[in-house]
Design brief:
44% helix; 10% strand; 818 residues; alpha/beta; 6-stranded mixed beta sheet; 26 helices
């Protein structure tokens, strides 16, 4: 076969890109980003997308039937919920027909089966065992290609791409020579120069008809969805200065197709690798309709309860200037902190995306590279660097030296482990030193953590967080400040202290540590963004610009940055050296209120953690954070269920159990819908990604989850394997969503609740196609009302609104078979 011309190669790339839509981009685990695993299929709707996932990935896409049975027995799904779901889907049914349909549902068959990955359309394909062997080989080459230095002899030619680098080395791979046999070995020495040519040649020799090319490519990608997802990230999301080699979908398809083509030819020739029988694939569930109805009923029950609670009259309180205002991230874990802080004193709280509108690259003192501190949907515009204040230069130098020494030590340990006998030599040489430290971390994790913290304090200089704009022009600073204040509805009645509170998690020995941090900050702690935003708000020039735009911040108001540790429920106020003396008393009072709120939240949260010691919840939470053997330091965003967009009066006084994202919004200051559009197209989309990640990691932890933490082996800084090799594992670890054998996370699609004029909401949706896909495609349910006196309305798939009516709770309860 002669080589393809440029247009033909372009068509191959287009086909590969289309085939790859069935897998989601996989961010490096060090900056973990929750993402809808089926985001590439968003435009086809939830039901069609899950049908494709069942077909191509062999995935389960709905809650386990046994779990649903238990929910029904516990009253979490009622017969009224099921009846309402049936009628919503089939409104023409009469009472008799509905009852009959309920009887069918209550039989609750086994549910959507997991069929296994789709079969090849090739006329000559290797058997299943051989396909698994090919998967392992390709995964090993991907790991070598993306290695960050843990392999003693790095793979040469990586800058040319996986296919070209592999093409040079493949003839010398003993595992490949064993796979293909002597007859086919020469084939490895004469592979096409371009990956597109290799793909076309392999498809032709495998006998795949042109109309099935995309399906065949998709099948190959779905055999290694983790590496395919990382390739999608490399191509579409990796920053320009990303040092790791770029894995591409085309290269991945080319390598696997070539191996399958050669293996199939070898098997057909009767080599030792000959097929041993392909077997019969497990049956594919013919319909997910019943499962969809059960899911809808479960979601309906939660929705009815939440909207009923939000319909109560808002609490009335005497309006006075609060002692402090706390602006938290919309993260569901902040709901508990806000609730307890408001109960602890005269404080007012707001919710806003945790990057506080500051799209920055941030380089901490001593860090070699900056990190993106903003949602992945946003591109950072400026770089902010920490620097020591005058008089702290020597301390800063010690911090840099300590960071350099630690980095060199990690590199040395990395190299020693990979050398022949290196692990044993390393243990002999350093065991006398690392043994006591390991024992202390195991037996006394909190005490060891305090000792390390004291060392950090001795080498922690006071750093500058009061730069004149951090690279933003004055006009940009005023615009960002105005946008943030209007979006959250804080445009007047400022307290003496306004605290911008980012958040972070704290865990030890955990490759998925970034999953506990702020998604709005790119999987990083939110403190840097809070510091930059607070410094900008405190600038006299910015306040003057805001005043010209109708927002007056009193001179008696000071903005503070803080950071909420969601694992220990402690809040640290940052940059205290910038606080004017006249605010010292107010800050001390705020410290006390935050400590009380944190203790209350820790007591509430620790009860749900497996094996918790309830005698001293705050101490227990801190111990879990520092214990390097702890696989469940916190539940993070497990059980997230809804995003509420509106004033705090909607939710004030309600215990929402840390299940809701709360974004402040006042429609009175947003007549053109600009702020609402920002909320729905950015924070709401991120919330849906988080919700979908938790949903799919729960309903099929084998396909969509990262597996058991105790079996993880990190691959450089990009991901984890379960065991010694194989595919990269995407999604959340099992311990993030399961309590033992039972799901802790309750899988349901996101409910978005908005208080704003319906015509304004509809206009925003009409202007943004992604919102149409989410709301009308069944990914997100939208409930809205124009004002507190108006009834709730539900948006339908055709874009119309219908009044919300809770399912009757008096229906006869039918028994579900055990």
């Amino acid at each position: 076969m002669t080589g393809l011309d440029r247009p033909a190669r372009a068509r191959v790339r287009i086909d590969v890109e289309a085939a790859g839509r069935v897998v989601a981009p996989l961010w490096p685990v060090g900056s973990f980003i929750a993402v809808n695993p089926l985001e590439g299929l968003l435009d086809v709707g939830f039901e069609a997308a899950t049908a494709q996932a069942r077909h191509w990935l062999g995935a389960r896409c709905f809650p386990d039937p046994h779990w649903l049975r238990a929910a029904h027995r516990a009253g979490r799904i009622t017969d009224a919920d099921l009846r309402a779901s049936v009628l919503a889907r089939q409104p023409h049914l009469d009472d008799h027909e509905v009852t009959a349909r309920l009887g069918e549902l209550l039989d609750l068959p086994s549910g959507p089966a997991a069929p296994g990955p789709a079969e090849s359309t090739s006329a000559a394909r290797p058997d299943r065992d051989l396909a698994v062997t090919i998967d392992a080989l390709v995964a090993a080459w991907c790991a070598a290609f993306t290695d960050d230095g843990s392999i003693a002899w790095p793979m040469p030619g990586r800058r040319e791409g996986l296919y070209l680098a592999w093409r040079q080395l493949a003839p010398h791979d003993p595992a490949l020579r064993h796979l293909v046999g002597r007859r086919a070995r020469a084939t490895l020495r004469h592979l096409p120069e371009h990956p597109e040519d290799a793909i076309a040649e392999a498809l032709d020799q495998l006998g795949v008809p042109p109309e099935s090319h995309r399906d065949e490519m998709r099948r190959h990608l779905c055999r290694l969805p983790g590496w395919a997802g990382y390739a999608r990230w490399s191509e579409q999301w990796a920053p320009p200065d990303e040092p790791a080699p770029r894995l591409s979908l085309v290269d991945l398809v080319a390598v696997r197709l070539v191996l399958e083509r050669i293996a199939a030819a070898t098997a057909a020739a009767g080599s030792p690798a000959e097929a041993r029988g392909r077997g019969t694939p497990p049956p594919v569930n013919a319909s997910g309709e019943d499962a969809v109805l059960w899911l809808d009923a479960f979601e309906r029950h939660y929705r009815d309860e939440l909207l009923t609670r939000l319909s109560r009259p808002a609490p009335t309180a005497a309006r006075r200037r609060p002692l402090a205002q706390l602006v938290c991230c919309i993260d569901a874990r902040s709901e508990g902190l806000r609730r307890h802080l408001e109960a602890a004193g005269d404080h007012e709280t707001f919710g806003f995306a945790g990057f506080f509108g500051m799209a920055i690259w941030f380089r901490a003192l001593g860090d070699p590279r900056p990190r993106a501190q903003c949602p992945v949907l946003v591109t950072p515009q400026v770089t902010v660097e920490e620097r020591p204040l005058p008089g702290h230069e020597q301390t800063a130098q010690r911090r840099r030296a300590r960071a350099g020494t630690a980095s060199a030590a990690r590199a040395a340990v990395h190299a020693a482990k990979t050398g022949p006998g290196g692990a044993f030599a390393l243990a002999e040489a350093t065991g006398w030193l690392s043994g006591p430290v390991a024992a202390a971390r195991t037996l006394r994790p909190r005490r060891q953590a305090r000792a390390e913290h004291r060392t950090d304090l001795r080498t922690a200089p006071t750093v500058d967080a009061t730069s004149d704009g951090f690279g933003f022009t004055l006009d940009e600073q005023v615009l960002y400040a105005e946008t943030a204040l209007v979006t959250m509805g804080l445009t007047g009645s400022f307290a003496p202290l306004v605290v911008l509170c980012g958040h972070r998690g704290h865990t030890t020995n955990n490759p998925h540590a970034a999953a506990l941090d702020c998604g709005a900050c790119g999987g990083n702690p939110g403190g840097p963004n809070a510091r930059v935003a607070a410094a900008i708000f405190n600038r006299a020039e910015v306040r003057a610009g805001l005043h010209e735009r109708g927002i007056t911040i009193p001179t008696s108001t000071w903005f503070l940055a803080a950071e909420h540790d969601t694992t220990t429920d402690t809040v640290v106020i940052l940059d205290r050296h910038t606080v004017p003396p006249q605010h010292a008393g107010a800050v001390a009072a705020l410290d006390a209120a935050l400590a009380e709120a944190g203790d209350r939240l820790a007591t509430e949260r620790v009860r749900a953690l497996p094996g918790a010691n309830l005698g001293n919840p705050a101490r227990h939470a801190a111990t879990r954070a520092h214990d390097w053997a702890e696989v469940q330091p916190e539940w993070a965003l497990a059980r997230n269920a809804a995003l509420i967009v509106g004033p705090r009066s909607m939710t004030a006084g309600l215990d929402l159990a840390c299940r809701t994202f709360l974004h402040s919004y006042d429609d009175a200051v947003d007549p053109d819908g600009t702020a609402l559009e920002t909320i729905l197209t950015a924070p709401m989309v991120v919330a849906q990604w988080i919700n979908a990640q938790y949903y799919f990691s729960t309903v099929d932890p084998d396909v969509f989850g990262a597996g058991d933490k105790t079996l993880h082996n990190p691959v450089g800084g990009i991901g984890v394997l379960v065991g010694g090799g194989g595919d990269l594992r995407a999604g959340l670890p099992r311990q993030s969503v399961f309590d033992g054998d039972q799901p802790y996370h309750e899988p349901m699609r996101l409910l978005t609740v908005v208080q704003a004029p319906l015509e304004r909401i509809a206009a925003v949706i009409d202007r943004n196609g992604i919102l149409g896909h989410l709301f009308d495609g069944g990914w997100v349910t939208l409930a809205a009302r124009a004002d507190p006196a108006a009834p709730w309305q539900l948006r339908q798939g055709d874009g119309t609104w219908v009044p919300w009516q809770p399912a009757a709770r008096t229906a006869h309860h039918l028994e579900v078979p055990a």
